[in-house]
Design a protein that fits this description.
This protein is of the alpha+beta class. The protein has two helices and 24 strands. The protein folds into two domains: 102 residues, no CATH class; 179 residues, no CATH class. Strands 7, 8, 11, 12, 19 and 20 form a six-stranded antiparallel beta sheet that branches. A four-stranded antiparallel beta sheet has the order 15-16-17-18, with no helix packed on it. Helix 1 packs antiparallel against helix 2. The radius of gyration is 28 Å and the shape is elongated.
């Protein structure tokens, strides 16, 4: 059989995968925090017809003679370029101008060995208990500074009431408003008094007027050395891998990990460029057709060979 048949098949499979990736990019053109992907190809093995020879005093050198045997996918890369900002005016909508990711926990982040995920989608809301969550109900992880070790410690962000500074009847006082600043600190207002949301060792949330307190809560962020090594798990979430970060990924305040700054009332949209995607779609379509034509041409040649004996 002709080698071009199998080379054409490998090309068609590759461009089919490329079209699948392009289709997913186009489908997520308006997905908050989505990062597009691209397909890269490489050739497979080559059949050596003749090897190279070195030049001598009597004869010049000869290059090798090789026939390629098709193509395959070398990688499907996730491109972490910034997406376009969209102004919403909603206080809990956040975007990060920098390399940091928000940290999301599937369970209460205060526990041990809690699975945490990274995301650029900052469309957060408060649930009925006052906890800051994402659209799937996962907890937005907060961080405080451990007074003994000085290390960051994960906490839940509960913006509901001051459980330390009670009213005259001994009841917690509800927070009347809140906002999030560029460093991820939650500014709350209670009975005309403003300050930072904080939590003590007893797990009680309160309004802190000490801006330098270790108990002040800020949104946890993480910076990885190789964002392309993160694994997509759906819901615009990423999971750490061995090639994304060396060692354990430790969430911290954005001002400590130099991850940039947070912008309130703004969402980072998808980084998909439709012009680029449609151009790549044309390339993939023509590449698929060209490989299909290779197969039909090879079939015509084989038909002529079969018809030699009648």
């Amino acid at each position: 059989m002709l080698k071009s048949l199998y080379s054409g098949i490998s090309g068609m499979k590759g461009f089919q995968t490329k079209l699948d990736v392009i289709g997913n990019n186009v489908a997520n053109v308006n997905t908050v925090g989505f990062k597009k992907s691209r397909v890269m190809f490489q050739d497979i093995i080559n059949q050596n017809i003749a090897g190279a020879t070195a030049p001598t005093g009597q004869q010049g050198g000869v290059n090798p003679k090789q026939i390629g045997l098709g193509t395959r996918i070398s990688s499907i890369d996730t491109i972490h370029t910034p997406g376009s900002p969209m102004t919403t005016g909603v206080g809990t909508d956040l975007a990060i101008d920098g390399e940091a990711f928000f940290v999301i926990s599937a369970e209460n982040p205060e526990g041990r060995d809690v699975p945490t995920y990274l995301t650029k989608a900052g469309n957060f809301t408060r649930d009925a208990n006052g906890d800051l969550v994402n659209s799937n109900g996962y907890f937005v992880t907060g961080v405080v500074t451990d007074a003994i070790t000085g290390e960051p410690k994960n906490v839940r962000i509960n913006i509901k009431e001051d459980q330390v500074n009670l009213d005259n009847d001994g009841n917690p006082q509800a927070f009347t408003s809140y906002s999030i600043d560029s460093n991820g600190y939650i500014n709350v207002v209670r009975d005309g008094v403003s300050g930072n949301l904080a939590v003590n060792d007893a797990g009680e949330y309160y309004l802190s007027t000490d801006v330098n307190s270790n108990e002040n809560i800020s949104l946890a962020t993480a910076v990885v050395s190789n964002p392309g090594g993160l694994k997509k798990i759906g819901n615009t979430l990423f999971e750490g891998t061995l090639n994304a970060q060396e060692g354990e990924l430790i969430p911290d305040r954005i001002e400590n990990n130099s991850g940039g700054e947070m912008i309130s009332g703004v969402l980072e949209m998808s980084n998909v460029d439709l012009t680029e995607e449609f151009t790549e779609m044309i390339v993939a379509q023509r590449g698929f057709q060209a490989n299909a034509r290779t197969i039909t041409t090879s079939d015509s040649l084989l038909e002529e060979v079969v018809n030699l004996k009648r």
